[in-house]
What we know:
This protein is of the alpha/beta class. Helices cover 30% and strands 17% of the residues. Residues 21, 27-28, 67-68, 70, 96-98, 120, 159, 161, 188, 190-191, 193-194, 324-325, 329 line the site of S-adenosylmethionine (SAM).
Amino acid sequence: MLTDAFGRTATDLRVSLTDRCNLRCSYCMPAEGLEWLPRPELLTDDELVRLIRLAVTRLGITEVRFTGGEPLLRRGLAGLVAQVAAMAPRPEISLTTNGIGLDRLASPLRAAGLDRINVSLDTLSPEIFVRLARRDRLGDVLAGLAAAAAAGLTPVKVNTVLMRGVNDHEAVALLRFCLEHGYQLRFIEQMPLDAQHGWRRAEMVTADEILEALNREFSLTPDDPAERGSAPAEAFLVDGGPARVGIIGSVTRPFCGSCDRVRLTADGQLRNCLFARTESDLRTLLRAGASDDDLVQRWIDCIQAKLPGHGINDPGFLQPSRPMSAIGG
Ligand code: SAM
């Protein structure tokens, strides 16, 4: 079990499959992109499968989420999903994606064993999409969402980051769109994880502001908190339910006390927190011929060092040197 010094147990493994992305969302990456990780530094499929197998069979991981960068850019993704789906005990397998290419990939991924999907969608306006993501791809994202639902990757969850003066007037329209299509919408507060270090607390659209905007059009009532468990989203019933909307207030309503996550970067570094300032190098150990026991021990040591909170609200907070796209969101 991956239990830390504060009694939290990590059961949810986030695996970044690549640091590359085909969008350039302003809250994540600069317009010109980033210097991508050199290919030899990326874990191969075999290396990934070995580490995930250890996590599932020896360390109590019950959920594996593939992310990035953009995970759909990873060649052979369906094969990877199939290998994880064949593990015993079988973990739940989910994917966080921007949805581009999902119109083609949703069915094969479902057939390979993918259980659930989260698609990022920040706007319904093609013009605002271009401004925010710096690519003209809204149509592809919407097609991807529809394909995910048609393939049975339900409930399809939608992740939205609101940016002041850009798309913060769209909270209600996005919720209406998701209600109409049967997607579960979750708003995520913008976090200090962009490569440009441009995050400003005063500019961030807060959970309170989002709730206020939604409450003007809908009647929101808090869902049973017992239902939340370690989920990051606070759920609200919309107009009495059963439809729900989630708010992930990572900055103003941190949920570190119930965090059950651990992250593996595409280059084989283990992180015990999105905001960790240190990483545990599994790749070097693995490539030096380490035994399973050695790898398991490194994993346990990494979790033991997990801090009680992410520290965003502490006076001396320092943003991690790696951006969200390289850590895996
Ligand atoms: N490319 C995939 C996608 O778009 O979903 C997976 C990786 S992306 C880093 C995962 C999630 O992180 C997306 O929903 C994205 O909106 C969110 N994200 C990226 N940067 C963020 C930030 N600075 N604050 C909050 N959420 C962020």
